[in-house]
Amino acid sequence: MPRVLIIEDHEKLRKLLVVAxxxxxxxxxxxxxxxxxxxxxxxxxxxxVIADLEVKPLVGFEMLKTIKRSNPNAEVVAILQTNEYNVGxxxxxxxxxxxxxxxxxxDVVNIGKKALEKKKLADKVRNLxxxxxxxxxxx
Length: 139
Prior knowledge:
It contains five helices and five strands. By secondary structure, the chain is α/β, with parallel strands linked by helices. It has a single domain (about 5-139), classed as Response regulator (Rossmann fold, 3-Layer(aba) Sandwich), CATH 3.40.50.2300. Strands 2-1-3-4-5 form a five-stranded parallel β-sheet, with helices on both faces. Helix 3 (about 60-70) links the parallel strand 3 (about 50) and strand 4. The longest helix is centred in the last third of the chain and has 34 residues, at about 105-139.
């Protein structure tokens, strides 16, 4: 079962997102204390991270770097307050997609599903490449 971490400073929205992902059969974590974002990310492995890029103390690109350093294979969906971020820049930092507040929960869940499907395919490719490398060494 894919693991989903929600990083959102608004408690009600965070809980709504967790419930929405759990209804779809995912193991969604009910967010974290804002002061422990990095510590929480390093404690476990997540398949998908839904992250508000305005959560302090890690804001914007610092948040993305921390997520990717701790969970390099995780797909990330960014939640933005405004479209002040350069979309190309956040995508180049490893973000699968983004949503602007306010958004519909179903939209975030659908984007999350697509991100997890991409991750699943990427994991299969990575596994096949490892098998091929082992076969080459055996020859």
